[in-house]
Design brief:
Helices cover 77% and strands 3% of the residues. It contains 9 helices and 2 strands. A two-stranded antiparallel sheet has the order 1-2. α5 crosses α6 and α5 packs across α9. The longest helix has 33 residues. The radius of gyration is 19 Å and the shape is globular.
Length: 281
Protein backbone atom coordinates (compact mmCIF):
# COMPACT_ATOMS: atom_id res chain seq x y z
CA UNK A 1 0.00 0.00 0.00
CA UNK A 2 2.86 2.41 0.88
CA UNK A 3 4.48 1.76 -2.50
CA UNK A 4 1.16 2.39 -4.23
CA UNK A 5 0.66 5.71 -2.40
CA UNK A 6 4.23 6.83 -3.10
CA UNK A 7 3.96 5.99 -6.80
CA UNK A 8 0.54 7.63 -7.06
CA UNK A 9 1.92 10.80 -5.51
CA UNK A 10 4.78 10.79 -7.98
CA UNK A 11 2.40 10.44 -10.92
CA UNK A 12 0.28 13.33 -9.61
CA UNK A 13 3.33 15.58 -9.16
CA UNK A 14 4.60 14.79 -12.66
CA UNK A 15 1.20 15.54 -14.17
CA UNK A 16 0.93 18.78 -12.17
CA UNK A 17 4.37 19.95 -13.33
CA UNK A 18 3.54 19.27 -16.98
CA UNK A 19 0.22 21.06 -16.60
CA UNK A 20 1.95 24.01 -14.92
CA UNK A 21 4.36 24.49 -17.83
CA UNK A 22 1.55 23.96 -20.32
CA UNK A 23 -0.66 26.61 -18.74
CA UNK A 24 1.38 29.30 -17.07
CA UNK A 25 4.04 29.45 -19.78
CA UNK A 26 1.48 29.04 -22.57
CA UNK A 27 3.15 25.89 -23.91
CA UNK A 28 0.38 23.45 -24.92
CA UNK A 29 3.00 21.48 -26.85
CA UNK A 30 4.49 20.33 -23.51
CA UNK A 31 1.24 18.60 -22.62
CA UNK A 32 0.95 17.22 -26.16
CA UNK A 33 4.38 15.61 -25.91
CA UNK A 34 3.57 14.21 -22.48
CA UNK A 35 0.32 12.63 -23.68
CA UNK A 36 1.85 11.32 -26.92
CA UNK A 37 4.56 9.63 -24.89
CA UNK A 38 1.84 8.06 -22.73
CA UNK A 39 -0.03 7.00 -25.88
CA UNK A 40 3.04 5.31 -27.32
CA UNK A 41 3.71 3.39 -24.11
CA UNK A 42 0.02 2.46 -23.80
CA UNK A 43 -0.04 1.11 -27.36
CA UNK A 44 3.09 -0.95 -26.67
CA UNK A 45 1.43 -2.38 -23.55
CA UNK A 46 -1.67 -3.41 -25.51
CA UNK A 47 0.56 -4.91 -28.20
CA UNK A 48 2.46 -6.92 -25.58
CA UNK A 49 -0.83 -7.91 -23.97
CA UNK A 50 -1.95 -9.56 -27.21
CA UNK A 51 1.44 -11.18 -27.69
CA UNK A 52 1.15 -12.71 -24.21
CA UNK A 53 -2.00 -14.50 -25.37
CA UNK A 54 -0.29 -15.91 -28.47
CA UNK A 55 -1.46 -13.29 -30.98
CA UNK A 56 0.98 -11.55 -33.30
CA UNK A 57 -0.22 -8.03 -34.17
CA UNK A 58 1.57 -6.24 -37.02
CA UNK A 59 3.82 -3.84 -35.13
CA UNK A 60 4.95 -1.86 -38.24
CA UNK A 61 1.31 -1.08 -39.06
CA UNK A 62 0.65 0.05 -35.48
CA UNK A 63 3.71 2.32 -35.58
CA UNK A 64 2.64 3.69 -38.97
CA UNK A 65 -0.84 4.37 -37.60
CA UNK A 66 0.60 6.21 -34.59
CA UNK A 67 2.89 8.44 -36.66
CA UNK A 68 0.27 9.11 -39.32
CA UNK A 69 -2.33 9.97 -36.68
CA UNK A 70 -0.02 12.62 -35.25
CA UNK A 71 0.77 14.07 -38.68
CA UNK A 72 -2.87 14.13 -39.80
CA UNK A 73 -4.04 15.71 -36.56
CA UNK A 74 -1.57 18.60 -36.71
CA UNK A 75 -2.20 19.16 -40.43
CA UNK A 76 -5.97 18.67 -40.63
CA UNK A 77 -7.17 18.93 -37.03
CA UNK A 78 -9.73 16.58 -35.55
CA UNK A 79 -10.95 15.45 -38.98
CA UNK A 80 -7.43 14.13 -39.48
CA UNK A 81 -8.39 11.20 -37.25
CA UNK A 82 -10.75 10.01 -39.98
CA UNK A 83 -8.09 10.36 -42.69
CA UNK A 84 -5.47 8.57 -40.61
CA UNK A 85 -7.86 5.79 -39.57
CA UNK A 86 -8.90 5.19 -43.18
CA UNK A 87 -5.32 5.20 -44.47
CA UNK A 88 -4.09 2.92 -41.68
CA UNK A 89 -6.96 0.49 -42.28
CA UNK A 90 -6.09 0.33 -45.97
CA UNK A 91 -2.44 -0.36 -45.12
CA UNK A 92 -3.52 -3.07 -42.69
CA UNK A 93 -5.76 -4.73 -45.29
CA UNK A 94 -2.97 -4.68 -47.88
CA UNK A 95 -0.52 -6.14 -45.37
CA UNK A 96 -3.02 -8.86 -44.49
CA UNK A 97 -3.02 -9.97 -48.14
CA UNK A 98 0.72 -10.51 -48.28
CA UNK A 99 1.31 -11.71 -44.73
CA UNK A 100 0.54 -15.02 -43.10
CA UNK A 101 -1.17 -13.42 -40.13
CA UNK A 102 -4.36 -14.97 -38.85
CA UNK A 103 -7.66 -13.14 -38.59
CA UNK A 104 -7.08 -12.84 -34.84
CA UNK A 105 -3.72 -11.18 -35.48
CA UNK A 106 -5.30 -8.71 -37.89
CA UNK A 107 -8.08 -7.98 -35.41
CA UNK A 108 -5.56 -7.44 -32.59
CA UNK A 109 -3.68 -4.99 -34.81
CA UNK A 110 -6.85 -3.05 -35.63
CA UNK A 111 -7.85 -3.04 -31.96
CA UNK A 112 -4.53 -1.49 -30.93
CA UNK A 113 -4.79 1.12 -33.68
CA UNK A 114 -8.12 2.25 -32.24
CA UNK A 115 -7.63 1.63 -28.53
CA UNK A 116 -5.72 3.44 -27.26
CA UNK A 117 -4.13 5.39 -30.15
CA UNK A 118 -7.13 7.04 -31.78
CA UNK A 119 -8.63 7.80 -28.37
CA UNK A 120 -5.51 9.73 -27.35
CA UNK A 121 -5.89 12.16 -30.25
CA UNK A 122 -8.96 13.57 -28.52
CA UNK A 123 -6.88 14.73 -25.53
CA UNK A 124 -4.70 16.64 -27.99
CA UNK A 125 -7.79 18.40 -29.32
CA UNK A 126 -8.98 19.16 -25.79
CA UNK A 127 -5.56 20.60 -24.96
CA UNK A 128 -5.39 22.73 -28.10
CA UNK A 129 -8.92 24.06 -28.32
CA UNK A 130 -11.89 22.01 -27.11
CA UNK A 131 -11.84 23.08 -23.49
CA UNK A 132 -8.17 23.92 -23.01
CA UNK A 133 -7.12 24.04 -19.37
CA UNK A 134 -10.73 23.65 -18.20
CA UNK A 135 -11.17 20.58 -20.38
CA UNK A 136 -8.06 18.88 -19.02
CA UNK A 137 -8.99 19.59 -15.40
CA UNK A 138 -12.59 18.48 -15.92
CA UNK A 139 -11.52 15.24 -17.60
CA UNK A 140 -8.97 14.52 -14.88
CA UNK A 141 -11.31 15.39 -12.01
CA UNK A 142 -14.13 13.15 -13.22
CA UNK A 143 -11.82 10.19 -13.80
CA UNK A 144 -9.86 10.54 -10.55
CA UNK A 145 -12.88 11.19 -8.34
CA UNK A 146 -14.69 8.22 -9.89
CA UNK A 147 -11.77 5.92 -9.05
CA UNK A 148 -11.19 7.31 -5.54
CA UNK A 149 -14.83 7.26 -4.45
CA UNK A 150 -15.38 3.84 -6.02
CA UNK A 151 -12.36 2.41 -4.22
CA UNK A 152 -13.23 3.63 -0.73
CA UNK A 153 -16.98 3.07 -1.06
CA UNK A 154 -16.39 -0.43 -2.30
CA UNK A 155 -13.81 -1.12 0.38
CA UNK A 156 -16.01 -0.10 3.33
CA UNK A 157 -19.53 -0.67 2.03
CA UNK A 158 -19.18 -3.08 -0.87
CA UNK A 159 -20.71 -6.52 -0.53
CA UNK A 160 -22.52 -7.36 -3.75
CA UNK A 161 -20.13 -7.86 -6.66
CA UNK A 162 -20.65 -5.81 -9.82
CA UNK A 163 -18.97 -8.09 -12.40
CA UNK A 164 -17.33 -10.93 -10.46
CA UNK A 165 -16.24 -12.78 -13.60
CA UNK A 166 -14.42 -9.73 -14.94
CA UNK A 167 -13.21 -7.79 -11.89
CA UNK A 168 -13.84 -9.52 -8.54
CA UNK A 169 -12.95 -6.42 -6.52
CA UNK A 170 -15.60 -4.19 -8.06
CA UNK A 171 -18.87 -3.89 -6.16
CA UNK A 172 -22.26 -2.32 -6.75
CA UNK A 173 -21.62 0.04 -3.83
CA UNK A 174 -18.32 1.03 -5.39
CA UNK A 175 -20.05 1.66 -8.71
CA UNK A 176 -22.61 3.96 -7.07
CA UNK A 177 -19.84 5.64 -5.10
CA UNK A 178 -17.98 6.21 -8.35
CA UNK A 179 -20.97 8.04 -9.84
CA UNK A 180 -21.22 10.21 -6.72
CA UNK A 181 -17.49 10.86 -6.96
CA UNK A 182 -17.65 11.83 -10.63
CA UNK A 183 -20.48 14.29 -10.00
CA UNK A 184 -18.58 15.66 -6.98
CA UNK A 185 -15.46 16.14 -9.12
CA UNK A 186 -17.47 17.85 -11.84
CA UNK A 187 -19.15 20.07 -9.25
CA UNK A 188 -15.79 21.05 -7.76
CA UNK A 189 -14.62 22.13 -11.21
CA UNK A 190 -17.91 23.96 -11.72
CA UNK A 191 -17.46 25.94 -8.50
CA UNK A 192 -13.79 26.76 -9.16
CA UNK A 193 -14.22 27.78 -12.79
CA UNK A 194 -17.82 28.92 -13.27
CA UNK A 195 -18.74 30.33 -9.84
CA UNK A 196 -15.50 31.61 -8.28
CA UNK A 197 -13.57 32.27 -11.48
CA UNK A 198 -10.43 31.00 -9.77
CA UNK A 199 -8.52 30.67 -13.03
CA UNK A 200 -9.62 33.82 -14.80
CA UNK A 201 -6.00 34.68 -15.54
CA UNK A 202 -5.42 31.46 -17.51
CA UNK A 203 -4.51 32.04 -21.15
CA UNK A 204 -7.14 29.76 -22.66
CA UNK A 205 -10.74 28.67 -22.01
CA UNK A 206 -11.71 28.78 -18.35
CA UNK A 207 -15.54 28.82 -18.42
CA UNK A 208 -18.23 27.31 -20.61
CA UNK A 209 -19.53 30.78 -21.42
CA UNK A 210 -23.19 29.82 -20.91
CA UNK A 211 -25.84 30.56 -18.27
CA UNK A 212 -24.52 29.45 -14.88
CA UNK A 213 -27.63 27.38 -14.15
CA UNK A 214 -27.41 25.60 -17.50
CA UNK A 215 -23.71 25.06 -16.88
CA UNK A 216 -24.55 23.33 -13.58
CA UNK A 217 -26.85 20.88 -15.34
CA UNK A 218 -24.24 20.26 -18.03
CA UNK A 219 -21.54 19.49 -15.46
CA UNK A 220 -23.81 17.07 -13.57
CA UNK A 221 -24.81 15.20 -16.72
CA UNK A 222 -21.18 15.00 -17.85
CA UNK A 223 -20.21 13.66 -14.42
CA UNK A 224 -22.81 10.88 -14.54
CA UNK A 225 -22.00 9.80 -18.10
CA UNK A 226 -18.30 10.14 -17.33
CA UNK A 227 -18.57 7.80 -14.35
CA UNK A 228 -20.32 5.19 -16.49
CA UNK A 229 -17.67 5.38 -19.21
CA UNK A 230 -14.80 5.43 -16.72
CA UNK A 231 -16.14 2.27 -15.07
CA UNK A 232 -16.75 0.66 -18.47
CA UNK A 233 -13.16 1.42 -19.46
CA UNK A 234 -11.85 -0.12 -16.27
CA UNK A 235 -13.95 -3.25 -16.71
CA UNK A 236 -13.07 -3.56 -20.41
CA UNK A 237 -9.37 -3.33 -19.58
CA UNK A 238 -9.78 -5.97 -16.85
CA UNK A 239 -11.58 -8.23 -19.29
CA UNK A 240 -8.81 -7.81 -21.88
CA UNK A 241 -6.13 -8.64 -19.32
CA UNK A 242 -8.09 -11.66 -18.14
CA UNK A 243 -8.56 -12.92 -21.71
CA UNK A 244 -4.86 -12.47 -22.42
CA UNK A 245 -3.80 -14.09 -19.14
CA UNK A 246 -1.92 -11.17 -17.58
CA UNK A 247 -2.32 -9.31 -14.29
CA UNK A 248 -1.13 -5.84 -15.35
CA UNK A 249 -0.46 -4.16 -18.67
CA UNK A 250 3.03 -3.16 -17.53
CA UNK A 251 5.37 -2.51 -14.63
CA UNK A 252 6.39 1.09 -15.25
CA UNK A 253 4.60 2.28 -12.10
CA UNK A 254 5.43 0.17 -9.00
CA UNK A 255 2.23 -0.86 -7.27
CA UNK A 256 0.11 0.50 -10.10
CA UNK A 257 1.13 -1.51 -13.15
CA UNK A 258 1.49 0.13 -16.55
CA UNK A 259 0.24 3.27 -18.23
CA UNK A 260 -2.97 1.57 -19.37
CA UNK A 261 -3.60 0.28 -15.85
CA UNK A 262 -3.75 3.93 -14.74
CA UNK A 263 -5.45 5.40 -17.80
CA UNK A 264 -8.00 2.75 -18.84
CA UNK A 265 -10.94 4.85 -17.62
CA UNK A 266 -9.25 8.18 -18.47
CA UNK A 267 -8.83 7.11 -22.09
CA UNK A 268 -12.53 6.28 -22.38
CA UNK A 269 -13.43 9.80 -21.23
CA UNK A 270 -11.32 11.62 -23.80
CA UNK A 271 -13.83 11.46 -26.70
CA UNK A 272 -16.71 12.27 -24.31
CA UNK A 273 -15.13 15.45 -22.95
CA UNK A 274 -14.08 16.54 -26.45
CA UNK A 275 -17.67 16.04 -27.64
CA UNK A 276 -18.98 17.93 -24.60
CA UNK A 277 -16.98 21.03 -25.44
CA UNK A 278 -17.68 20.67 -29.16
CA UNK A 279 -21.42 20.90 -28.40
CA UNK A 280 -21.21 23.60 -25.70
CA UNK A 281 -18.66 25.98 -27.18
Amino acid sequence: MLKRIFTGTGIFVLFAVVLFFRTYFNLPVVFDIFMLLAAGIAAWEIYECFRASGHKPLLPVIIYNFVFLIICYYVFGLIGIVYAAAASTIVLLICSIFSEKSLNDITATLFTMIYPLIFFVFILEINNGLGGFLGIILLTAISCFTDIFAYFTGKFLGKKKLCPNVSPNKTVAGFIGGIIGAVSGAMLVYVLFEVLGTFNNIVDIYTLGIDIGLALVAYIILGIIGALLNTAGDLAASQLKRKCGIKDFGKIFPGHGGVMDRLDGYVMLMPLVALFFYIIL
